[in-house]
Every structure is written in structure tokens, then in C-alpha cells.
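Sequence only, no structure available. Ideas?
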Amino acid sequence: MDDSRLKTPARLAAPQLPSTPAFWRSPVRGVRFTALLGVVLLAGITLLFVTGLLSYAAYNPDLAAVNDKTPDKGLLGFYLFAWPTGPHWLYRLTQGLHVTVGIVLVPVLLAKLWSVVPKLFVMPPARSVAQALERVSLLLLVGGVLFEFVTGLLNIQLEYLFPGSFYPLHFYGAWVFVAGFVAHVGLKLPRTLRVLRHGIPPAADELATPDPAPPTLSRRGALTVVGAGSLLLLVTSAGRSFDGPLRRVALLTPRGGAEPGEGPNGFQINKTAAKAGIVPADTRERWRLTLAGPAGEVRLTRAQLLAMPQHSAALPIACVEGWSTSDQWWRGVRLRDLAALAGHADGRAPDVLVESLQPSGPFRTVALRGNQVADPRSLLAFGVNGEELSLDHGYPARIVVPAAPGVMNTKWVARMTFGGVR
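Reply:
I predicted one. C-alpha cells follow.
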């Protein structure tokens, strides 16, 4: 018998561990491949972070406790500012970008994590202070980015499944992730730029395997697959921010597909009256709007409110989940006129606390700033697109404010306290 048949190849004689470079055999991995993905993520994640902070500011969390879902934020709220009312599509743009870019980056993120997996198993964990800092930043980066993307993706679905409250988890998670992200970029960006400009010798490529498997896909082909995946996600998700055919192809987001009904009230909603616990009888003849302010309390019927000067404004509805509507024509009483009726007749619009008929739930009560009350487009609306509001859209009256998140446009309004925000 030929003894050579009994010999086992050296590579098979001793199983390779993940901590050995030869364990990872894909010929696609390499520093330049990772650097290209990293540059895309650098731009995309920076945009996500900025638009995420803007979304948080849009809730005016430093205005009132009812708006603040992260009361222990401390110094992390240093940047907060009074959210403007113009342009009226501001929140539609910023939050639409935040959610859409986050979804589109998923293939890039997964490819990037796959490309650097060997570095997570390098032993010993650190040979120098610089390497130790790099490993710590890498752990923060990987853990933080996975947490942020998972919680964000769950939040845009119909039912939020992640345990705990989305707002503090996503907010604090973002800052932890960004700490690792900034440290990692500071350590890696100079070399990344050098690699992209000048390339790297094969001997210096620590991500390239010393024992490559037969190639099934080139690095350029892998980048093409990643790009195609991102394009597919863009096409099947971005449409929820538009009307017509684009919304119908938004298959991966809960606000895609057909509009909820037809006619003037046939545009997207976030929560039905039944889901909010609204009792229809409370919205009919016995409904009253209570205005509170320096003049005391004033209780008005819907007929009395409709007898006041009516105004119109074309405004969208845009929600934190990233979906939005086109401009809808709302008609009702200006908030600043209601402020004057409550006793603020000096021309200075106060902050206002708005309470809904809904018995419980987040944002049942919200506070609006004086600049939002003062805007002539800010209305207590009774109709939309030439028709009376439907119950699901907030009948008998709802708030509409330009550039505000959807949850700040309170439906089924029962009470408004002007100047009583604390």
C-alpha cells in the first residue's frame, strides 16, 4: 500500500481555532475592502446620529416633564434648543432620512462586521496600550451599533417588541455607541485614507487570510452585492414617505401598501381611536373643550369653536417611525386665538399643555412651545381636505403644528392649559 494515501494534509491535521489567521479563509476579506465599507458607514452613521439628535430635540424634552422620556439625561441634553416651525416639512425630512438611511445601511453594516470578525478573536487581546484602546473601541462599536440598529428596526414595525422603553434605550445606547465610534474613527481614519489612496502591500494586510479558499466572488463583486442589497432596501422602504406608487412598494415598512381608506380622510394614521381607547360617545354632543389660563377656565362646545374665525394650513403628518404623509389641508381655529380667549390677549403666545381624551398611553399629554402656538399655521383642526375629521384622525378636534413630530399633534383634544407648562 502507498503510505502517502495515509497522510493527512497539514491543514487538516490540527483544527484551526478562530484566534489563528488561517481559520478565516475567505479571499474577499482585506483591509481595502473593509476601508471602503468603513467610509460609507462613517458618512451614514454620522447622518444617523445628527438626525437622531434632531428628532430628540423636536420633542422639546427640556420644555416639560411630559415631553421628556429620558429625564436623567443630564449633560447629554446640552444641545437641546427650541424646535422651529419652519420649514413645515422639517421633521418629515430629518426623520425620514434617519429611518431610511438606517435601513439602507444594514447590508453595509453586516458586510463590515463580517469583514472584521477575525479581529475580534485575536490573541492576546492587547499587546500595547494603543491596541488595547482599539479593542475596547471595537467592542463598544460592535455592541453599540448592533443594539442601535436592532432597537431602531423594531421600533418602526407595527408592534414594538424590544423590552423596556424605546426612547431611553435608543438615546443612551446612541451615546455609548458614538463614544466607541469616535474613538475608533480617530484611531483608524488616517490609515483608512492612506489605504484608499495608496493601497496596501499584501504582507501588511492583517485581514487577508494566509490560506485563502478558492474564490467564488471577487471583492468588487462583493461590494456590488452589498450595494444591490442597500438599493433593494431603499426601494422597498423609502416609499412610506411619499404618495402614489412609491408607497405601494414600501413592502418592508408598516406604513407601506394601500392607504387606510378613501376620500379626504384616507391618509395614514399611527393609532386608531379603538386602539387608543376612545369611547365614541365622549366625542359627540357631550364633548367640551376646556381652555385654562389667566382668564380662568372656559368650556366650549364644538359649535362655539366652529363659530370662531376659521383658518386653513397645508401640513404633513410625520412620525418617529419614519413614515409621513404629503401636505393635507387642515381647517380650524388658530392656537394663538385660543390663547387669547384663555386670557393671553397681550400678543405674546404662551406655552400650552394639551391633553387628550384617550385614557392612557404615551404622549396622552404634550407641551408645545410659545413659538409653536404663535405660528399662524398651528391649528386646533376640525376638518381636513374639505371634510370633517374622522374619528381615527382625531374627531372632534386635534392639534396640527408645522414641523412637529406626529405624536405632538394631539388627537381627541379635551383640555388646553395656556401658560401652565411645568
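The beta strands are 289-293, 296-300, 311-315, 328-334, 352-356, 365-368, 379-384, 387-388, 398-400, 413-418.
Hope that gets you unstuck.
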